[in-house]
Inverse folding.
């Protein structure tokens, strides 16, 4: 015997089922969109964190200038580029006169301000393919490019004059 059973859903029952289906699809779309936004945010945060870590490793935080690690990288890059272009470079080290006494007499905030000011002066003296950094203990380093010894001596004299005025 063969029995045929026919089920028919009423139109109102079908509408309810379609409503549930729409809600489920909406929730899935919201979940996927939330996941995508979270992944984008996580990627941006990761990139920002990497930049912050690099900045902390290569910047003297309280002076807001390159530190000795950045200076080493700059020297290596300068030497590599200098060999190719055959430019002359010199590494010059400056130590603030009587820095130990200054450090003892003045507060840390004032000493940092002096060092920040000195760093800004050196930054202003560097061209795009030169670099400077705070090396610690009142000492700065600068990589200077020059073509003739006389021009190098003139730049050193200019730096001395500027530092004497400041």
């Amino acid at each position: 015997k063969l029995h045929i059973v026919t089920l028919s859903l009423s139109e109102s029952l079908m509408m309810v089922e379609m409503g549930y289906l729409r809600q489920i699809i909406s929730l899935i779309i919201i979940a996927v969109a939330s996941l995508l936004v979270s992944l984008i945010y996580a990627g941006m945060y990761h990139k920002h964190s990497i930049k912050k870590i690099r900045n902390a490793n290569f910047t003297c935080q309280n002076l807001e200038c390159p530190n000795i690690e950045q200076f080493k990288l700059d020297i290596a890059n300068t030497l590599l580029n200098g060999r190719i272009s055959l430019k002359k470079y010199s590494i010059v080290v400056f130590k603030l006169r009587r820095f130990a006494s200054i450090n003892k007499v003045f507060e840390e905030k004032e000493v940092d301000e002096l060092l920040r000011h000195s760093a800004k002066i050196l930054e202003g003296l560097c061209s795009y393919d030169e670099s400077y950094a705070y090396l610690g203990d009142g000492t700065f380093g600068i990589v200077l490019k020059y073509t003739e010894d006389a021009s190098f001596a003139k730049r050193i004299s200019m730096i001395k004059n500027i530092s004497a005025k400041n």
